[in-house]
Amino acid sequence: MKIPNFNLGTLGFRILRFREIGILLAFATLFLILSLSTSTFFQFANIILVFRYASFTGIMALGAVFLLSQGDIDLSVGSIYNIVGLLIFVLLERGWSPVSVVFIGLIVGIICGLINITLSIILRIPMLIITLGTLNIYRGLGLVLYESRPKEAFNLDNFLFNIFGGTFSMIPFAVIALITLAIILFYIYGFTRFGIHVRSIGGNLSVARAMGIRINKTRAFSAMLNGGLAAISAVLTVAYLRAALPSFGTGYELIVIAAAIIGGTALSGGSGSIFGAVLGALVISLIVNGIAHLGISTYWTATVTGTVIIIAVVLDYLSRRKKLYY
Q1: Exposure string for 105-127, b = 16+ CB within 10 A, e = fewer
Q2: pLDDT confidence of residue 319
Q3: Is residue 326 very low, low, confident or very high in pLDDT (cuts 50, 70, 90)?
Q4: Which of 174-183, 198-207, 225-234 has the least mean pLDDT?
Q5: What is the pTM of this model?
Q6: Is there a contact between 110 and 232 (Cβ–Cβ < 8 Å)?
């Protein structure tokens, strides 16, 4: 299979003509409406907060793009985020070095993703069903870890909190991490053999198998990437908050999937958008933040997010049906 050549011209063309221009306009419109509706929204500290929160979910949404594109859905990503966050916090309390803690957190995230896909492959059960179970297993293990922690103060003056949780020229490190990962994964998804295989598996499994694509290996790499990205997000969140709570990551699995779908990744598989997922995370972050500033009960957040998901899925379905008949 021939791999597309990577050059600046092709890259610029792909970015300028991406179909997610609509979500970018939606974000700009929401931003303008909120800026005019309340005097507390358009403040530098609040704008930074919007982008920082979007970074935490956006990093995980990048992994969701790969999984959804190959036809898999991970409902345990919020629990992976939870167990990694609680684990590194407990290890820090026990006196472990920040370097070893970050490394262990990444390994745990990758292993969790590998467990999900291994069970799916061996048992021949959709990953969606498997992760319904591991969602509770990982979160339960995280709670056990949290309750068994020594509950002692530890040194917060280290690179984990000062750098990963800090800012550079007023830009949060988490935002820089999101942008960097998005650029790298944009190239991998659109211009490498692995990215092509991911989309081929989700587009037509029988054709992908006939082409000689190693289905299970590709699915495994995507699942491990997804788990690793959830771990990175957890590390950055703990570094910013300088704490971890049992509720860490609750409901994030739906927010992450929503960000990817809103950004243009097909729920049915076969196509997706890395930068679209970033925009989707920004839109959700803007909605959550805007609801708070408008004085609306935060209980409406889930309702509004769910409505946006339905709209995004319907629009995707209609666009695909139009392509089939025209």
Answers
A1: bbebbbbbbbbbbbbbbeeeeeb
A2: 65
A3: very low
A4: 198-207
A5: 0.90
A6: no
Domains present along the chain, CATH in parentheses: 14-317 (1.10.3470.10)
HEC readout, the chain:
CCCCCCCHHHHHHHHHCCCCHHHHHHHHHHHHHHHHHCCCCCCHHHHHHHHHHHHHHHHHHHHHHHHHHCCCCCCCHHHHHHHHHHHHHHHHHCCCCHHHHHHHHHHHHHHHHHHHHHHHHHHCCCHHHHHHHHHHHHHHHHHHHHHCCCCCCCCCCCHHHHHHCCEECCEEHHHHHHHHHHHHHHHHHHHCHHHHHHHHHHHCHHHHHHCCCCHHHHHHHHHHHHHHHHHHHHHHHHHHHCCCCCCCCCCHHHHHHHHHHHCCCCCCCCCCCHHHHHHHHHHHHHHHHHHHHCCCCCCHHHHHHHHHHHHHHHHHHHHHHHHHHC
CB 282 within 8 A of CB 78: no
Place of tokens 């590998």: 114
Going from the C-alpha of 223 to that of each of 20, 78, 131, 133, 226, the distances in angstroms are 25, 14, 11, 16, 5
User: What is the token pair recorded at 295?
Assistant: 């004085």
Alpha carbons 181 and 35: distance in angstroms, whole number: 29
Q: Measuring CA to CA, which residue among 189, 167, 202, 176 is closest to residue 275?
A: 189
Share of the chain above pLDDT 90, in %: 60
Question: Do the beta carbons of residue 35 and residue 41 sit within 8 Å?
Answer: yes
* Residue found under tokens 């990962």: 181
